[in-house]
Amino acid sequence: MALKGLDIFKLTPKTNCKECGSPTCMAFSMKVAQGAISIDKCPHMSQEALDKLSEATAPLMKTITVGAGEAAHQLGGETVLYRHEKKFVNRNLFAVTVTPETFDEKWEQVKGIDYDRIGERMYVEALALEYTGDADAYAALAEKAKATGRALILDCDDAAAARKALEVVGDAKPLLNGASAANADEFAALAQEFKCVLGVSGATLDELHDTVEAIEGKGLKDLVLNCSTASAKDAFEYAVQIRRSDLKGQDRTFGYPSIVNVAKLAPGDAHLQEAYASLFTVKYGSIVVMEEMSYADALPLYGLRQNVFTDPQKPMTVEPGIYPLNGADENAPIATTVDFALTYFVVSGELERAGVPVNLVISDAGGYSVLTSWAAGKLSASSIAKFISENGIADKIKSRKLIIPGKVAVLKGELEQKLPDFEIIVAPNEATDLVKFMKQFA
After folding, report:
1. Which of 64, 137, 222, 336 has the CA that lies 20 to 30 A from 287?
2. DSSP string, 31-86
3. The predicted structure's pLDDT at residue 375
4. Quick one: DSSP state of residue 318?
5. Residue 152's pLDDT band (boundaries 50, 70, 90)?
6. Residue 108 buriedness (CB in 10 A; 0-12 / 13-18 / 19+)
7. pLDDT tens for residues 259-280?
8. Each residue of 109-126: pLDDT tens digit?
9. Distance CA 139, CA 60 (A)
10. pLDDT at 341 > cutoff 50
């Protein structure tokens, strides 16, 4: 059971030195119990106390790293069942299944999915290498897949074939996804030898639990738990029960991230796989494996994932600065709006559609929409003028035409006073009218 604040307080030095950043040792203990700070923030805690508290105060779900170098991704580490309770910690990964026969075609499709959305790179993070019965061909597939720079999943329950592949890609720290009750000893030995994460499956939840316990008994604690592939209903039950048993039941045997293979739940049905991928993005699939993924598939899935794996207490923002659109140079006019990510992408998208060169200037408006930031005092004539002055925008851009959002047209007069060298132009209220407005303006 996780320790309470009072249990932790009994082991503190009780000096109230404030060096941990908390006013008292009791306040520090309460924060540790809530998971807000780590126990080692106290510089005077004895080693005996640290050893005693480290496991008890650690997150119930272990954080696992799959892949190496730039392809390394963290999974798990979750502390809540529902995003609104706090936030989800490590986003799930999307993987595409490949075989020796399909690799070239699917890789061409996969590498075409690579774009930025709100400052985050969107791409297929992992390739799931499906074993089809030829160990030599599987090792060759592993070598080709390693060259892509993506995280690898060795979806193979044949220990001899898995070893051949690991001898080629072991240093890439793949997920060896093949352990079961029947071969747990062999695969645990392989995972220990190559120091990689081990995927464990079970015919039932009870069998999965027993297999994980047996593998943990061998000293392996870097695991990923497979959800059932018998049906979507069973897979959903596995995903939910694993997470609930860990976080609510405090069963550390199930305290690992999970993998869901929707390619096996709906083989050949791309639309159903997309629906299942959406479901398990929301409900606890740390890795979601699909048969294939097109650009059209990726757009809604990555948008959903980004929404789920953001902090609900912090608005999504873009970095303040100058964003030249449509090949804008120093002579192009200036348009400005807030740093709220949704506003930025809607406005920038319409400006790009207009095809007119323009320098979009984003100032710090607290991550609010235009009217909200104006009402909160975050967007004002003073804040816009200050941002332009402090960032030397007048020196970087020769144009003296400044386009402001139509919903804050009230700022026009004050801006003319604060920026006497600029011509202040009021844009339409709605972003959808920007295309026509910009073409007429040009």
Report:
1. 137
2. HHHHTSS-GGG-TT--HHHHHHHHHHHS-SSPEEEES-GGG-EEEE----SSGGGS
3. 93
4. -
5. very high
6. exposed
7. 999 999 999 999 999 999 999 9
8. 999 999 988 778 999 999
9. 36
10. yes
Identify residue 49 by its one-letter amino acid code: A
Mean pLDDT across 374-395: 92
Mean pLDDT, the chain, rounded, equals: 93
Please tell me the distance from the alpha carbon of residue 435 to that of residue 349, in angstroms, as a whole number.
10
The CATH code of the domain that includes 203 is: 3.20.20.20
Q: Give the integer Cα–Cα distance in Å for 402 and 393.
A: 11
3-state secondary structure of 244: helix
Q: What is the pTM of this model?
A: 0.79
Q: What local confidence, expressed as pLDDT, does residue 156 receive?
A: 97
DSSP-derived secondary structure letter, 407: G
User: Domain limits at 351?
Assistant: 321-441
Cβ contacts of 265 within 8 Å, gap of 6 or more: 229, 231, 232, 235, 272, 273, 276
CATH number at residue 339: 3.40.50.11600
What's the rounded Cα separation, in Å, for the pair 323 and 360? 5
Domain check: are 392 and 247 in the same one?
no
From 143, 130, 213, select the one nearest 171 (Cα to Cα). Answer: 143
369 and 229 within one domain: no
Cα distances (Å, whole numbers) of residue 422 to 266, 359, 418: 60, 14, 9
Bridge pairing between strands 197-200 and 175-179 = parallel
Asked if pLDDT for residue 181 goes beyond 70, the answer is: yes
The DSSP secondary-structure symbol of 149 reads: T
Question: Is the pLDDT score of 2 beyond 60?
Answer: no
Residue 237: enclosing H or E segment and its boundaries? helix 232-247
- Which helix H or strand E contains 226, and what residues bound it? strand 223-226
